[in-house]
C-alpha cells in the first residue's frame, strides 16, 4: 500500500470509484486473487504478520464494496418508477405576480424557472438506468400549455425520454392515467414526487404506489400530508438507495 495514503482514499482509488462496470470487474478479479494468495501464504515472506492482517482487511473491504455495488445495481434494475410533477416540483410555478391569470398567456410555461432538484433528477436519468423517470404533469385548457411544457422539458430535462412525458387534464387522477398508460406498474415500486397533497393521497390508494411530497418553500403550510416529505435531492437519493437495497423505505 502506498505510504501516506489513508485506507479510505486508497480503497477509493483502487476500487475504481466512479468507474464503469468493466473496470470494477477487473479490480474485483485482482482483489480476489491477491486475497487468495495471502490466505494461502504464497506471499507470506513479503509481509510481517501485522502488515499481512492489515492488507487482508483492506482487500476484503474492497471486495465487499464492489459486491455491494453489484448487488444494488442488480436489485435496482427496472424495479423503481419515479414520477415527477412539473409545476411546483421541477419548475417554479409562482414566479410572476398574478400567475393564475398570466398562465394562459403565450410563453408562460416555456419560461418557468427551475428548482435546483430538477437538474439533479435529469442527471439521474442519464447516469442511473435502474430508476426509470417520468414527468407527470397536469395541463390547463390552453392553446399553449402542453406544447410549452414539452418545449421546457426538452430544454431543461434533456435526459428524460420524451416518451415518458405524461400529461393529464386539471383535476384528472394522475394514478389513473399512469395505470392506463404505463406498462408493468404492478411489478414495480412507483413513486410520485409532487407538491400537492391531494395527488399524493390518491396515489397511495394503490399497492406499490408511494407518495413523496416535495417541499418547495410555499406549500406544506397546513401540514396536512402525513407521509414522506422531500426537501432536497440528497434526501430523495437516500430514499432510492433504501428502496433498491431492501425493497422498502423503513
Largest sheet: 6 strands, parallel
Number of strands: 6
The CATH class name of the largest domain reads: Alpha Beta
Number of domains: 2
Major sheet: arrangement of strands: 3-2-1-4-5-6
Short description:
This protein is α/β, with parallel strands linked by helices and 250 residues long.
List the helices and strands and how they pair.
Elements: H1 7-14, H2 21-39, H3 49-76, E1 80-84, H4 99-102, H5 116-127, E2 131-139, H6 145-156, E3 165-169, H7 174-181, E4 189-194, H8 197-203, E5 209-214, E6 228-230, H9 233-246
Parallel strand pairs: 1-2, 1-4, 2-3, 4-5, 5-6
Which characteristics define this entry?
250 residues, alpha/beta, Rossmann fold, 2 domains, 9 helices, 45% helix, disordered N terminus
Describe the structure.
With 250 residues, the chain is an alpha/beta fold. It has 2 domains: 7-75; 78-246, Rossmann fold, CATH 3.40.50. It contains 9 helices and 6 strands; from the N terminus they run αααβααβαβαβαββα. Strands 3-2-1-4-5-6 form a 6-stranded parallel beta sheet, sandwiched between helices. Strand 4, helix 8 (197-203) and strand 5 (209-214) form a beta-alpha-beta unit. Helix 2 (21-39) packs antiparallel against helix 3 (49-76) and helix 3 crosses helix 9 (233-246). The longest helix has 28 residues, at 49-76. The radius of gyration is 24 Å and the shape is elongated.
Amino acid at each position: 500500500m502506498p505510504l501516506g495514503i489513508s485506507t479510505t482514499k486508497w480503497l477509493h482509488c483502487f476500487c475504481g470509484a466512479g468507474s464503469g462496470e468493466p473496470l470494477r470487474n477487473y479490480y474485483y478479479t485482482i482483489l480476489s486473487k491477491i486475497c487468495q494468495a495471502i490466505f494461502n501464504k504464497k506471499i507470506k515472506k513479503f509481509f510481517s504478520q501485522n502488515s499481512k492482517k492489515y492488507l487482508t482487511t483492506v482487500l476484503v473491504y474492497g471486495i465487499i464494496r464492489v459486491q455491494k455495488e453489484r448487488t444494488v445495481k442488480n436489485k435496482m434494475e427496472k424495479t423503481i418508477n419515479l414520477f415527477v410533477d412539473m409545476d411546483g416540483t421541477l419548475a417554479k410555478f409562482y414566479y410572476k405576480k398574478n400567475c393564475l391569470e398570466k398562465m394562459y398567456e403565450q410563453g408562460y410555461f416555456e419560461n418557468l424557472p427551475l428548482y435546483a432538484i430538477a437538474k439533479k433528477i435529469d442527471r439521474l436519468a442519464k447516469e442511473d438506468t435502474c430508476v426509470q423517470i417520468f414527468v407527470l404533469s397536469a395541463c390547463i385548457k390552453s392553446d399553449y400549455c402542453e406544447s410549452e411544457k414539452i418545449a421546457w422539458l426538452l430544454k431543461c430535462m434533456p435526459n428524460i425520454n420524451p416518451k415518458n412525458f405524461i400529461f393529464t387534464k386539471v383535476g384528472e387522477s394522475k394514478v389513473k392515467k399512469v395505470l392506463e398508460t404505463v406498462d408493468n406498474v404492478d411489478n414495480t415500486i412507483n413513486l410520485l414526487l409532487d407538491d400537492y397533497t391531494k395527488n399524493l393521497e390518491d396515489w397511495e390508494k394503490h399497492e406499490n404506489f408511494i407518495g413523496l411530497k416535495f417541499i418547495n418553500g410555499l406549500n406544506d403550510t397546513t401540514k396536512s400530508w402525513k407521509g414522506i416529505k422531500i426537501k432536497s435531492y440528497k434526501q430523495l437519493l437516500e430514499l432510492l438507495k433504501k428502496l433498491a437495497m431492501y425493497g422498502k423505505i423503513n
